[in-house]
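Troubleshooting entry. Yesterday's outputs looked truncated, so today I'm pasting the complete records for two proteins to confirm everything comes through intact. If either block looks cut off, that's the bug. Protein one:
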Amino acid sequence: MGAKICLEHIKIFSLLIFIIFLNTQNTTSQSHSAGLLSSLKPLSVVAFFSSECPICKKSATAFAELISKYSDKVDFWIIFPGDFETKRSVEKFCKNYKLKIQKVTTVLDKDHQWVKKYNALITPEYFLIDQRGYIVYSGALDDRFVSVGIQKRKAEKFYLKESLEAALNNQPPPIKRTEPIGCYITKKD
């Protein structure tokens, strides 16, 4: 009788270990999809884009240049929120603006897990994240866009680039937050 009880305890213990293992696997997968970045690189840039936003289209080339310059030291993610975004629209956007050939990860965020995680409001909006998951900088790529419909010929201040340079040199960013200019992300409840 004692051996039978002991065997039952072992079965229950084994089942509990298996359930804990499954829950751990599920949590890891959910965390990743919610935008919790894990990287061996010291920094990640999370950019929220819309394939239909004119300012995203006008900013994409400058962002592609940053990706080319820093992709060996920084992970780049482009998040496309919205029900209208499809794999095809994202691929077309990336191809047109030379983002696909770069070292970049694209994500369709139909359920807005990434939007909620970073409280993104606008496309394009950029988040520079350190290895601990802290937001080092958030906002606009540069000061080229003054408001929707009004832009300078050339940017004079390069917020994301300057923040990347500072962070890579273990310095605080020159500015922590700027107001992004672009298209509003329609929030899901």
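Protein two, checking that the full record survives here as well:
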Amino acid sequence: MLARLERALAALPQWLHDPDLWYSMDVNYHPPRVERLYRKFEDGRIFLHCIYPCGRDEALIHPHPWPSAMLVLSGRYRTIVGAGAQRKRPVMVMESMVSATPEADYRYTMDNPAGWHSVIPEGGPVYSIMVAGPRWSRWIPEETLAIAGRLTTLTPNRVSELLETVAGLYAQHQRANA
């Protein structure tokens, strides 16, 4: 998945200046609120996220329906992880702090179909880039299915603002890591 992330990052600059290339979603049904831009990439998707702070006990514990790799560009969050193949939330077994700046990014993968996690931003919004592969052939949590059709899109102005912010952070990242 990290190789897929690298391929997406190589193509990203050409996409960051055209809002028409992106779909948007305001994931606000459960903390943390996530402003999401996404588009097709290879046989999966690339996502740009702005994730807002929330309380530790509020954060949604969830699995991903696909293998994924993340690049955290800016901000910090606590993540709690666990694994379980059942439809109910598993025992969470590990907690860590993820912290990144454009000069010192943080990358990780979620490539276990039984993996669950929560993200708890602290001190301000977190900006990240995520790539996902094709969906795993397994169930999706019922609460995810229930809200999927009710999420709203972001305003065109907000889409442009997010693209501008990510473009700036990613340009800083590229300069610092050249």
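Both blocks look complete. Sanity check on protein two: Residues 156-176 form the longest helix (21 residues).
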